[in-house]
Amino acid sequence: MSQYFKIHPDNPQPRLVHRAVELLRDGAVIVYPTDSSYALGCVIGAKAPLDRIRHIRDLGDKHNFTLVCRDLSEISTYAKVDNSAYRLLKALTPGPFTFVFKATHEVPRRLQHSKRKTIGIRVPHNTIAQALLTELNEPLLSSTLLLPGRDLPMSDPEQMRDRLQHQVDLVIDGGACGIDLTTVVDLVDGVPQLIRQGKGDFTAFQI
Hints:
Layout: E1 3-6, H1 14-25, E2 30-33, E3 38-42, H2 47-57, E4 66-68, H3 72-78, H4 83-92, E5 97-102, E6 118-122, H5 127-136, E7 140-144, H6 157-164, E8 170-173, E9 183-186, E10 193-196
Parallel strand pairs: 1-8, 2-8, 4-6, 5-9
Antiparallel strand pairs: 2-3, 3-7, 4-7, 5-6, 9-10
Helix pairs in contact: 1-5
C-alpha cells in the first residue's frame, strides 16, 4: 500500500521531502504535483520503476518520457541544445512546457523515443517539485498522471491514493495544481514545432 504525504505547497516540510527522496532512491514510483498537473515520477537510472510507470499508463515504446530538471544547468547533460534553443528555454522556464530534443549519451536508451532517440525536458514552476529536485540533485523521470481511457489527468490526491495504492509507493498531496497538460514543443531541428497545445502559450515561439 502506498504512503501518503501532505506537503505544504509553499513551504514544503524538509523532513517529508527528504523521506520522499529516500523512497525515490530506493526505487519508488511517486505521484507529485507540478505546475500543470500531477505526475508520476522515479529516478532515471533504474529499469523497474520505469516499467511500472509504463504499465500504469499503458505506454508503448514510442512514448517520449520527460526528464524534469531543476534548472537549465542540468539540461545540457541530457539534451543536445543549440544556442537559439537555449535562449528560448531561458525565456520560458520554469513553466508548463515540455521541450523535445535529441538525447545525449547520458540518457539511458530505454528512456529515449525508440526511433528518434529523443527525450522530453522540462523545468516546472512548482515549489514541491523544485524541493524534490534540489534534494535529489538529479532530474526525475516523469510522465503525466493520465490513466488509460482518461482524457484528463487525475487531480484529487485522495482519489489517487485510493486508485493507485497498490501501483505506486507514495502519493504527495500538494493541494490543487490543475488538470492541464504541458505544451509540447519539438526543438530537435532548431525550429519550434508544436506537438501538443497545453497550458503553455505557444505564441511565445512565434516572436
